[in-house]
Specification:
Leucine-rich repeat, LRR (right-handed beta-alpha superhelix), 8-stranded parallel beta sheet, 8 strands, alpha/beta, about 190 residues
Length: about 190
């Protein structure tokens, strides 16, 4: 029955309005909450974390998870077990590469990884077939894998804060015409 409820919940909830549909608990509030299976939104933002707490594994029904504004550089393997996760915020951490475990999140719709240290994306990103929004603002990204263009549901990619040349911008807009790429003004510095 619990699985059926979660499935119904996912069909009426999308990542863009998920926070309006259920409470987002802060990590400090959890001792006062009964039952980990009733927690759908969780924030561990601004906790100065260098790693994800192992206790997080107990929250299997998460739909929204905010790990933003910490000092995290790696994700544990159990993140791939959050099969109901629609929205994940990893902004302003210390990721030098996008963790491969994210590619296991098949229904993830929104991924925020702005202000990290990413230089490229993994080939496996194409397996994130439901991803519609990707925020990579202000990362030192220089290239995308060819598999990136197979992300047919991707409707918006924020690449502002990154100086790409006109050829790069034109190439990716042509390769993915149904995706809205948000670029800063092109410069010859990256040609």
């Amino acid at each position: 029955m619990k699985f059926l409820y979660a499935l119904i919940f996912l069909t009426v909830c999308s990542w863009s309005n998920a926070q309006d549909d259920f409470p987002i608990y802060h990590w400090e509030e959890l001792p006062h909450v009964f039952g980990t299976d009733t927690i759908y939104g969780l924030s561990l933002s601004r906790m100065k974390l260098t790693e994800v707490p192992e206790d997080l594994v107990r929250f299997k029904n998460l739909v929204s998870l905010d790990l933003g504004k910490n000092k995290i550089s790696e994700l544990p393997d159990f993140i791939g077990d959050f099969q109901f996760l629609l929205h994940l915020n990893l902004e302003k951490n210390r990721f030098e590469k996008m963790p491969f475990v994210l590619c296991q999140l098949k229904i993830l719709e929104g991924l925020i990884m702005n202000r990290n240290l990413l230089t490229t994306l993994p080939m496996c990103i194409e397996f994130m077939t439901h991803l519609t929004y990707l925020d990579l603002y202000d990362n030192p990204i220089r290239s995308f894998p060819d598999s990136f263009e197979r992300m047919s549901n991707l409707s918006k990619v924020d690449l502002s804060g990154i100086r790409f040349g006109p050829t790069f911008q034109e190439t990716w807009r042509a390769r993915m015409p149904n995706t809205n790429f948000v670029f800063d003004n092109a410069c010859d510095c990256m040609e």
